[in-house]
Design a protein that fits this description.
0% strand; 148 residues; elongated; 86% helix
Length: 148
Amino acid sequence: MRSRLQLLWLLVTLAYAGVRIALASRYLAGYGLSIPIFAVIELASSALFGFASGRFVPALAARTGPDGRHWRESINWGAATLIGFAAPDAFVFATTRRVPFQTLILLIFFVTASMVFSSFTLRRRVRAAQVAQNLAQQRDATASEQSS
């Protein structure tokens, strides 16, 4: 079940990348943004973001462990998630030139809104994974008590 959700999430992030590529082509190509290069960066970053965030949530939810393994996994997957999220926007800001002020404000708003939405989604997914993990642990404890 979890692998299906991770695959679905990856497909959603890639579909979102297609929307971003289309918007960049329509609104930013005239300001020095190379759409083919942006498309490659966007698709690769979205694949990284979709895959890494799908691994980041379970690692963060299972953040305990005597050896700290889950924390290290959380940090690694979190860093990969952040890189996948930020790389296309960093490329846009680094390569566009003479963008009108209104377009720049709209771009900053869009990046900020995406970041906030992703943060809330990630938080909700982590909490849901923690609840599921706690329920499973309680179920296991109850089952072991009943068998004793």
